[in-house]
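Students often ask why we bother encoding 3D structure as a string. The short answer is that it lets us treat folding as translation between two languages. Here is a chain of 321 residues written in the first language.
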Amino acid sequence: MFDFGKKKPNRSDAEEIVGSWYKQLISLKNDFAPLKTAVVHPTDAISLTGALESAQENLIEPVFVGPKDKIMAAAKEAHLDISPYQLIDTMHSHESAEAAVVFIRSGQGEALMKGHIHTDELMEAVLNKETGILTERRMSHVFSLHCHHYPKPLFVTDGAININPTLTQKRDIVQNAIDLFVGLGLGKPKVAIISAVETVEEKIPSTIEAAALCKMAERGQIKGGILDGPLGFDLAISPESSAAKEFHSDVAGDADIIVVPNLESGNMLYKQMTFLSETEAAAIVMGARVPIILTSRSSDALSRMASCAMALVYYRRSMVS
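And here it is in the second language, the structure alphabet:
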């Protein structure tokens, strides 16, 4: 189990606190063999650097999938040596996504990693009903954020895959996030289903769905977490707000997982936290045959490395246990 404590860090402690989370996450890889990972269309220095640094940490064994000339040019420009690693040559980004999925379906790979390619283009190949890597579970995206003024990692879902999920799809989204949290050895998560208000309002559908999800958890349709909702975001993360509003629950003020109403709200929340609050983020897609390491194309190498660590630990502990 991780020990993050309950005290909120001050600004001067921020870098150390955030770095500590990533160090703890990455340190868990020591007992596991690296994931053989298809890195999809890594035609820029950032995606190549993230993959190579993750390989140096023994988090992944990269297989680069994309146009050879573009990948080699990016490596040369960034002074990176990719010669020790397999490279699958393709004509363009669409073919890169398809070839990477074929590599996974053939049993040769254990994870996918997004390079310099649009999420929609990668996921089109993943979601193909005949040639993709679907499971019975709805796929969803999970951010793991460590904020300067929150005492522990905060998971946010789904801000990248499901645009306007149904109640049934939200059930899978919640379960995916719980499974990841538990698979990383973080214990039993407190899950906040957030909306604009903390009361059930007919005119705000997300409040009705939040209440339904909590009832589904009571009935055993969602397992492994403690759910509460609807909750305003302030109530989910702030003990002071909970006290001021005289709102009491097992989740309020101490959430581990934030479940947003839709992709727009989740994506905006993530970007607000990363750009305005200097929050660090790691991210993977859950629900496919293998974990998909899916960060923003602008994500730095540290974020990509932390995402690889998260995929490795989850896969080795949960998917092949």
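Translate back mentally: The radius of gyration is 19 Å. Keep this in mind for the problem set.
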